[in-house]
Task: inverse folding
């Protein structure tokens, strides 16, 4: 490596390029996952293994997009929904819930819904992981951010319950 390549600005550019590449990847995976016809191809390419570490990425946008991409995959495929439970992705998402912002929380709730909607077995598995407490906490957090006083008491995010 030449001396000019090791300047602080060039080093910073390498990290910025790396972050942009991760962001483009998760955004592209989320877009591809919107089509059910792409799901098997993405699965066979190992998309879940590639997205899993991005759930804890340093960049909040990358974390959120990774959750959305995984949720879209789960929406279309029961086997993927099962893999998310068995592979620890739901557990990681739940562990991260209280660490991150409201956008991550909304995306995480979308993921839980995408898995639970398939059948009672998966919904029960999510409950056994302690998801209900996290869901209630998120909904309370949403109410706190959206409302002051009693004008919104009792409101809940109907988009979550479908």
Result:
């Amino acid at each position: 490596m030449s001396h000019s390549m090791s300047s602080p600005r060039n080093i910073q550019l390498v990290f910025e390029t790396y972050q942009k590449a991760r962001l483009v990847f998760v955004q592209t995976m989320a877009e591809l996952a919107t089509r059910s016809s792409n799901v098997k191809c993405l699965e066979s390419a190992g998309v879940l293994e590639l997205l899993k570490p991005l759930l804890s990425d340093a960049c909040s946008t990358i974390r959120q997009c990774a959750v959305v991409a995984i949720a879209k995959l789960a929406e279309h495929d029961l086997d993927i929904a099962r893999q998310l439970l068995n592979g620890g992705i739901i557990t990681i998402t739940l562990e991260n819930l209280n660490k991150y912002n409201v956008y991550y929380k909304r995306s995480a709730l979308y993921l839980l819904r995408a898995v639970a909607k398939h059948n009672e077995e998966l919904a029960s598995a999510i409950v056994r992981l302690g998801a209900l407490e996290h869901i209630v906490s998120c909904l309370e957090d949403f109410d706190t951010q959206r409302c002051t006083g009693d004008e919104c008491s009792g409101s809940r995010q109907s988009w979550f319950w479908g």
